Amino acid sequence: MERYIEPFKVKVVEPIAEVSRDERVAAIKRSGYNLFKLRAEEIYIDLLTDSGTSAMSDNQWAGIMLGDESYAGSRNYFHFEETINDITGLEHVIPVHQGRVAENLLFQTIATKGSIIPNNSHFDTTRANVEYQGAKALDLLCEEGRDPGLIAPFKGNMDIQALKDLIADVGTDRIPMVMITVTNNSGGGQPVAMANIREVSAVCREHNLPLFFDAARFAENAYFIKVREPEYADRSIEEIVKEMFSYVDGCTMSAKKDGMVNMGGFLATRDGDLAERIRNLLILVEGFPTYGGLSGRDLEAISRGLREVLDYRYLHFRIGQVTDLGEQLTEGGVPILRPAGGHAIYLNAGEFLPHLKPNAFPGQSLAVSLYVEAGIRGVEIGTFMFGGKDPETGEERTARHELVRLAIPRRVYTTMQMNYVGQAILDLYAQREAMRGMKVVKEPAFLRHFSATLEYLEQEETITAS
Ligand code: F0G
Fold first, then answer.
1. Residue 71 annotated among the catalytic residues of the structure
2. Cα–Cα distance between 230 and 216 in angstroms, integer?
3. For residue 393, what pLDDT is reported?
4. Beta-carbon contacts of residue 220 (< 8 Å; ≥ 6 apart)
5. Of 68, 235, 352, 387, which has the most beta carbons under 10 Å away?
């Protein structure tokens, strides 16, 4: 990859408190070894998520001062609407305060018990909102996307044959829409090729099925199309984004990612009837259709962020930072999900700590060590997050992969800080045999990873856990 350099300079700084190793040990014990329960001030580099953690530009902050807080018809809404119309070509634009509300309103409107919603991979909140309607959230990820070590350019692609087979099997009545998540967060932030989007769209149009993007990281996906799909090498990011959206009928969007803001989202569609039905629900839960749970100033910051994210130099820097961290780790022999995704590096904790079985939570052990030794917070995506008791059989389930996600906030950390992260992981890798397994000591009935408490296993328990 051609070198990147930060295409911005720093105008405001936020000091990071100094927290000693002893203080971190005390903090993580107090938190029951659950990184969600730390105070953020106890962290040096926070890679828990790239969502809502972006640094806004001076241009966005200037927009904040131009917020018009009228209840109805704020000028910032019209700017927001025009910007989204222009970038995506989607006509009806509905603001919401974050992505999952767009999902909730959409599935409440179109899904019923027995419906099936195919996606390359549903993000957790999307899946939950589909399932809440009694519908099935089906992942139809291509085979390459399911192999964590395989190097391939578009591991986020949908399996077209699987989609055709599904339609042939169940018919179109049970499929109210098809979705593609760009980039595919649950599958490692991997991109979807334009060729794949085009083909999925052709299948959907042939069967009269609406196709929607989960567009949270649409610009990062467009960057990968430009650099990995040869016929797009000379096309601008704007042109690529326009073409991507030309194949869909709508999108849900968490603007907390590629909207470059700390809060916000939207739903956009070509279907005026659908938009009207969703707006009727919006008034119940978010607000009047020209603000949808956001302030005028938030709408303005999103409108500006959506333009800034299309800058090739910014995307080259952003994805370069993530790619470089991946290369630093791979060169040092650290197992990661490859190739590096757009927004995050996923450490393969199962291979990093082969002496720990899934039910000894290798990902959680690694994430805790990374915090204790270096003040870095990532998030376990493995058996601690997805395991727990099967509600039907009562047996302990294990996840398909044991991963630790390190999501990189946009425009927040310097390249020196990213090098520090890489070096800290290499240092941990050298001491990996000393890392012990963990057990859950207290857990709630649902979504345990947010609040469960854990403890280390004794040495012998670690060895025998299976
Ligand atoms: N879709 C995708 C692909 C996401 O990654 C997220 C959020 C959402 C939808 C929901 O959006 O948070 O604005 O309600 N992902 C965050 C993450 C939480 O850490 O990956 P939201």
1. yes
2. 24
3. 81
4. 183, 189, 191, 258, 315, 318, 319, 342, 343
5. 352
Indicate if the pLDDT at residue 310 is higher than 70.
yes
Q: Is 305 in the pocket of ligand 1 (CB under 6 A)?
A: no
Residue 445 confidence (pLDDT) above 90: no
Phi, psi of 463 (to 5 degrees): -70, -35
Catalytic hit among 257, 316, 357, 401: 257
Ligand 1 nearest-atom number relative to CA 50? 19
Amino acid 36 reads: F
Q: What is the C-alpha to C-alpha distance for residues 459 and 85, in angstroms, rounded to an integer?
A: 59
| 3-class state of residue 140 by DSSP | coil
Residue 460, pLDDT above cutoff 80: no
Q: Which DSSP symbol is given to 408? A: P
Distance between CA atoms of residues 466 and 453, nearest Å = 20
* Amino acid of residue 205: R
Asked if residue 57 has pLDDT above 70, the reply is: yes
Encoding tokens for residue 10? Answer: 């720093």
Interval between CA 53 and ligand 1 midpoint (Å): 12
Tell me, yes or no, if the pTM score tops 0.90: yes
Q: Point out the catalytic residue in the list 107, 123, 245, 371.
A: 123
Q: What is the pLDDT of residues 355-372, one digit of tens each?
A: 999 999 999 999 999 999
Choosing among 3.30.420.10, 3.40.50.720, 3.90.1150.10, 3.40.630.30, the CATH entry for 21-50+311-465 is 3.90.1150.10
Ligand 1 centre to CA of 124 (Å) is 8
Q: Is there a catalytic annotation at residue 232?
A: no
Q: How far, in Å, is the centroid of ligand 1 from the Cα of 186?
A: 10
Phi, psi of 96, rounded to the nearest 5 degrees: -140, 165
Nearest atom, ligand 1, residue 181 CA: 3
Does the Cβ of 343 fall within 6 Å of ligand 1? no
Cβ–ligand 1 contact at 49 (below 6 Å): yes
The token pair at 332 is 């040092």
Whether 97 is a known active-site residue: answer: no
Is-catalytic flag, 123? yes
Indicate the CATH number for domain 58-308: 3.40.640.10
Give start-end residues of each CATH 3.40.640.10 domain in the chain: 58-308
Is 137 assigned a catalytic role? Answer: no
Ligand 1 touching residue 265 (CB < 6 A):
yes
Where does CATH 3.90.1150.10 sit in the chain? 21-50+311-465
Whether ligand 1 lies within 6 angstroms of the CB of 181 is answered as yes
